[in-house]
Every structure is written in C-alpha cells, then in structure tokens.
User: What shape does this take?
Amino acid sequence: MKKIGLIGAMDSEITAFRRDFHAVETPHKGILCGSFSDYEIYICCSGVGKVNAAIAAQRLIDLCGVQYMINSGVAGGLAKEIAKLDIVISKQLTYHDFSPLELLDKYPPCSHMMQADAELCEKALHACDALNEKLKKDGKLPFTSHLGTIVSGDCFVSSAEKAQQLRDDFDALCTEMEGASIAHVCTVAKIPFVIIRAISDFADEDAENSFESFETVAADRAAFIVKELLS
Ligand code: ADE
Assistant: This one.
C-alpha cells in the first residue's frame, strides 16, 4: 500500500479527510491514520506558519514513511484572474519573507524556487475538471483551476499594497503560510509533493472578513480535490 501524507494547517482544513478516510489516532501525537482506495493515509493538522508545517512534513516522512505529500487548504488570491473559491495548484513555490532569496541558491540543500511534482499537478488539475463536471450536473457554479506560483510567509496578508507587491515581485497566484516550507522539506527528502489551495480572500483590507466567511467552504473544496485526485 502506498503511504500518503496529508497536511492541513487548521482543523477546518483536515475535517473532510478525517471523516472521509475514517481516520483514527496513531501512537504519534497529532498524526491520524486512515485509508482510501489503495492508500494508507497519514493526516496531520500542523498549526499555522512555516515552522509548524515543516515539523509536520518531516514527522510524516520520518515517523510514518509517507512516499507522497499533499498539502491542502485556503489561500489569499493575488492574481487578477483569480476568483474566490477558485483552486490554485502549485507548479512551484517560494518564500516571500526570506531575504535575500539567493542565499538559498548559494547554500545547499535547496534552491529558492521549489518545484512540485508534475504528475501530481496534472492529477490535481484533472480532479478539478471532475469536480466541475459534478457541480455543473448539480446546477451549481463551476470554478476555475490555475497552475502557477504560490508564495508563503509567516504573515496573514491583509493589505492591497502588500498583495500588489507579491504579485509584482513573484508573479504569484496566491499566498498562504505553509506551502513553501512543506515543499522545502519534501524537496530535501526527495518526496513528490503538491500544494492545493482554494481561495478564501484576496489578501486585501477585506481579507479577514472574507476569510471568516469562506474558510469552511474553501477548505472543503480543496479537500474534495485531494479526494478526487486519490481516486
Ligand atoms: N490564507 C488564507 N488567506 C490568507 C492570506 N490573506 N494571507 C496568508 N495566508 C492566507
């Protein structure tokens, strides 16, 4: 059986996994184990931010032996073409609060732009198409899926000016607080990974309000894509 690691930063981001994969506790604190299809699935609610996420990723690799890593959850949309509840799939990730980023290129083991696994990205995009078909059949609004750059940092971005700067500096589709550190750990450990995020806000002055309103529905949508990807 293949072993998959799933990380969500907040409870809302792993609720669907817990339920759908019939997860039970493991001897490892904060790590649940469930199953789906041919997969043994290890689920960890990491807590927010880069260090928490990196700890979770490394523990899933070392303690549970996961062979693939998926992080799903919510994000603040940056690019103009992004709408709320759209899905962003990570082609690549970097930090927006590490400076100068070139230090990562100069000093091994990991360069500043971390590439997600192309096959997982492709499967995630197909999963989005499958969900859109279902939504259309049910007479519900479809969404757009985007493949591109995600930037992570230890701050909840809630300023249009900062959002603009992230757009300009990184050509990023969205921002969140964990993806790049999970990517970093997985790159060093040579574990294929993908980050899947649903847009809860636009990282502007309304971000906190919007986050409150969209957190649950966006987190569930991202989790649904993961389930569809695995099936
Ligand atoms: N996650 C969801 N929205 C976010 C934002 N605006 N900034 C950082 N992380 C987020």
Q: What stands out?
A: The helical segments are 11-20, 50-64, 102-106, 118-137, 160-170, 179-189, 207-230.
